[in-house]
Specification:
The protein is built from 12 helices and 5 strands. Helix 2 packs parallel to helix 3 and helix 9 packs across helix 11.
């Protein structure tokens, strides 16, 4: 895993380098204290994970990430900053960051976040390889018994993840799994279709099916947010708060649970299903 660090504070760079090397989390392919110089380098090197400060004198971190993501949209970006403004943090997410970490940097937190993003990059790369293999093997005949066995195994994996989210047994779980299996078998990303289109043919009442799925995923969001409130280093919270859900929406839900916000976080059903498939494919 290729990692690049940009921060005008040499102490922060050194600390993150030590975390990465001590935890064997990846390869540091570059560091820089000057954001303008770093931009040219990262656009050329295209690291898997970019760790960047928000407040830098030459070029601020948000603009830096926005320009970098145009060149390398699949790269993951971690932003570190002392800024706590919700408006600025929200803008950072809009421009392409994957995770926001507040300074002073907690070593355990950044280690877990890097580990989580490393797993996510591996999942996405493996899915690409799987799709390539499937496209090459479309002409092969698969025995019906093999299909049944594979499907049953995949369904067990879905249930394992649902259990970790605390939603196993919810009515919508079976329908989420059914939709995901449909997407997997058709080699189609849910991003290219509306949920109504995906559910048509799988249910006599697609609208009711969507409502059940939405309620189930919302419950999962609430459970993840509660885990984060209890322990933000909880493995389940770190793993799923930025894969199955948008991290900023998980934070919004946490603030709502604490009574600091009037509304909770929002879910993205299609992102949830696509990333759920990624996780299951890797298991």
């Amino acid at each position: 895993m290729k990692i690049y660090i940009v921060d005008d504070d040499a102490t922060i760079i050194k600390m993150i380098e030590e975390i990465v090397l001590d935890g064997n989390l990846g390869e540091i392919i570059g560091t820089c204290e000057n954001s303008l110089t770093a931009l040219d380098e990262v656009c050329l090197l295209k690291p898997d994970i970019l760790i960047v400060d928000l407040l830098m004198p030459e070029l601020d971190g948000i603009t830096f990430v926005e320009r970098f993501k145009r060149i390398s949209p699949s790269s993951k970006c971690i932003m570190v900053s002392q800024v706590s403004s919700k408006k600025i943090v929200g803008e950072a997410y809009d421009k392409g960051i994957t995770f926001f970490i507040s300074k002073p940097v907690n070593k355990k937190e950044i280690r877990q976040v890097i580990k989580n993003l490393t797993e996510q990059v591996c999942l996405e790369n493996n899915l690409k390889k799987i799709k390539q293999v499937l496209s090459l093997e479309d002409h092969l005949t698969v025995k019906e018994s093999d299909v049944v066995e594979i499907t049953q195994d995949v369904e067990k994996k879905f249930k394992m993840i649902f259990a970790r989210l605390g939603i196993l047994g919810e009515v919508g779980c079976d329908e989420i799994a059914k939709l995901c299996l449909h997407i997997m078998h058709s080699s189609t990303s849910s991003a290219s279709l509306k949920l109504k289109d995906l559910s048509t043919g799988l249910s006599d009442n697609p609208k009711a099916m969507e409502q059940r799925i939405r309620r189930t995923i919302n419950k999962g969001l609430s459970n993840i947010a509660n885990l984060g409130i209890e322990d933000y280093l909880n493995e389940t919270y770190v793993k799923y708060s930025n894969t199955l859900f948008d991290f900023d929406q998980v934070r919004q839900e946490m603030e709502f649970i604490r009574g600091k916000k009037s509304s909770g976080g929002k879910i993205n059903i299609k992102k949830f299903m696509d990333n759920l498939i990624l996780l299951v494919e890797e298991m």
